[in-house]
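Working notes for the structural subgroup meeting. M.R. asked for a predicted model of this chain before we commit to crystallization trials. I am recording the input and output together here so anyone reviewing the notebook later can reproduce the run.

Input as submitted:
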Amino acid sequence: MNDQALLARLGYSFADPELLRQALTHRSHSSPHNERLEFLGDSVLNCVVARMVYQAFPRLPEGDLSRLRAHLVNQQTLFSLAQDLGLGERVRLGEGEVKSGGFRRPSILADALEAVFGAIFLDGGFEQAQRVIEGVYDSTVRELDPVALGKDPKTLLQEYLQSRRIALPRYNVVATRGEAHQQQFEVECVIPELQIRCLGEGTSRRSAEQNAAREAYAAATRA
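Returned structure, recorded in token form:
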């Protein structure tokens, strides 16, 4: 995937292509890297997403709107959207990060997406950044269930299966990568009765299980 394919998915063309290059450059690769753009993009993203949920859910009180916004801008949601955009194929990493699979690490891809939003803000202004963010987030916001968001993925999955008298899922650690102080866990969530096997990654076994459960819940409710 090249930059033009990414820009087509975003629906944006940079006046200054170097901003996109910087947004996709991890600090392990070279300088200037994307951390300052990430900081900027985070602020723009929060503002745009706040407006989106405010308009999409006119009856929700402030506390629930804050919860929805937090869900939409968290690392896992950003990671999922970044994967959909193919950022893992475009992010520029140092040799060590490439070897350790940094192109699929949630924190790296989530940060890169925020940096892209920041770069668009600098290049084209707030209205252009807002338009792109709304395009990226549109289907995610439309599919939100405000009630379900109050529960973590493992709880949601358990309640869903129990309500249908289906045996609870099994969670198995299938891989552990990295040094002891910076490990990455890969966990499989298995629901034999529904023939579902989903993988999740995280910096702890618990977070990996939650991410696997999120994927399994999505698969179960689509079945």
